[in-house]
Amino acid sequence: MKLLPRIDAEGGAEWLARTATLCLIDEARLSPKPGLVDSRGSGAHHDLTLELMERSAHSLTPTFQALAQQSWLRPADVALRQTIGRLGREGEQQMMAATGGVNTHRGAIWALGLLVSAVAMLGGNAPAQAIAATAAKLAQLPDDAAPKLFSKGLRATHRYRVPGAREEAQQGFPHIIKLALPQLQHSRQLGSNEAQARLDALMAIMTSLSDTCVLSRAGLEGLEAMRQGASAVLHAGGVASIAGQQALAELDARMLALNASPGGAADLLAATLFLDRMTTPYLAN
Ligand SMILES: CC(C)(COP(=O)(O)OP(=O)(O)OC[C@H]1O[C@@H](n2cnc3c(N)ncnc32)[C@H](O)[C@@H]1O)[C@@H](O)C(=O)NCCC(=O)NCCS
Ligand SMILES: Nc1ncnc2c1ncn2[C@@H]1O[C@H](COP(=O)(O)OP(=O)(O)OP(=O)(O)O)[C@@H](O)[C@H]1O
Questions:
Q1: Is the pLDDT confidence value at 280 over 90?
Q2: pTM reported for the whole predicted model
Q3: Ligand 2: does its nearest atom lie under 6 Å from the Cβ of 92?
Q4: Cα(229) to centroid of ligand 2, in Å?
Q5: How far apart are CA 152 and CA 256, in angstroms?
Q6: 212 CB under 6 A from ligand 2?
Q7: Which atom of ligand 2 is found nearest the CA of 151?
Q8: H helices of 30-77, where?
Q9: EC number(s) per UniProt (predicted)?
Q10: 108 lines ligand 2 (CB under 6 A)
Q11: Average pLDDT over residues 54-60
Q12: Ligand 2 pocket, residue 107 CB under 6 Å
């Protein structure tokens, strides 16, 4: 794998932040995504629009930049964990201020925030697996300053006894490393265009994630519909094939009927695009 040239802390932090924001915007615009906000419309969401998602993404650039600056060449220890926990929570507040109190990117701040920190800890240059493993170390450390708040995601992980956003990070983002990135590369190699390859990567995540957004809104029936529908798209030949496009349209209709939206999968797609840009020179900017 070819890596990017080594970069310095200041320019590196700015570049990482810009790239993370771009990945959020790329994810939001990518269409057609089942149940999610995309350039066609709001999906299963009544309080979200593409414009709001983009405004939210831009509001997070300073947070990502501060995360990168504070993490540059630092080791994974409790002090750094507490710093990035504080910056992440401040980022959530900035997001809420920019969106008028709507949760657009809570899960994305968590996943991308940890990954931005991890790249910076590694000096701005490392393979995807090393970045994910470093982010996992951070996620495993305690953050005693974190308020013990109730959340829908936490309730879903307890009720259904499944891993959620926290565990995905603590395990080193297996849905990105083992499913999404390999699928992205595979679909590109088969000649899919970039949007099709990204949609295939989203499908790969959706075949197995316990997405607490889906569980909170549509229970196990919604989760099963998501997983089966995404498998059907990939088995039909992926989004580049006519049969795959048909299966994707069916999945979209099913998710809308169930009021289900795979927001966790969308966050992990944005994080996948980020790791892809970190390690694919022609996509870097
Ligand atoms: C751990 C987090 C995600 C809270 O998780 P919790 O499940 O309690 O909350 P919540 O339901 O609001 O958020 C979960 C979000 O993650 C996404 N998600 C859902 N399921 C999954 C999954 N299986 N895998 C990954 N992401 C998922 C969804 O978008 C969902 O909205 C995080 O918000 C947090 O602790 N933030 C504090 C600040 C911090 O420590 N930041 C450090 C890094 S910047
Ligand atoms: N393109 C997208 N469309 C919709 N959601 C997305 C998209 N990308 C990421 N998400 C994620 O989905 C989550 C939103 O899910 P959801 O609306 O279920 O959360 P909520 O605000 O907790 O619940 P509710 O809207 O039911 O009150 C966000 O935290 C965000 O991280």
A1: no
A2: 0.95
A3: no
A4: 20
A5: 20
A6: no
A7: 22
A8: 50-59, 61-71
A9: 2.4.2.52
A10: yes
A11: 98
A12: yes
Q: With a cut of 0.90, is the ipTM above it?
A: yes
Q: How far apart are CA 209 and CA 97, in angstroms?
A: 30
User: Atom 6 of ligand 1 has which residue's CA nearest to it?
Assistant: 153
Q: How far is ligand 2, taken at its centre, from the CA of residue 125, in Å?
A: 31
SS3 per-residue string spanning 65-91 = HHHHHHHCCCCCCHHHHHHHHHHHHHH
Q: 282 pLDDT exceeds 50?
A: no
Burial label for 130, CB within 10 Å (0-12, 13-18, 19+), is: middle
DSSP designation for 147 = -
Mark residue 191 as left, alpha or beta (left: phi above 0; alpha: psi -120 to 50; beta: remaining).
left
For domain 9-283, give the fold: Triphosphoribosyl-dephospho-CoA protein (1.10.4200)
The helix (run of H) or strand (run of E) holding residue 99 is: helix 78-99
Tell me the angle at which helices 212-235 and 194-206 cross, rounded to the nearest 10 degrees.
120
37 residue type, one letter: V
Q: Please determine, for residue 237, whether its predicted confidence score (pLDDT) is greater than 60.
A: yes
Question: So where are the chain's domains?
Answer: 9-283
- Only one residue has tokens 């695009």, namely 273
pLDDT range class, residue 1, cuts 50, 70, 90: very low
Q: Find the angle CA(251)-CA(184)-CA(196) to the nearest 5 degrees.
A: 50
- The C-alpha atoms of residue 216 and residue 228 are separated, in whole angstroms, by 18
Q: Name the residue with the closest Cα to ligand 1, atom 39.
A: 85
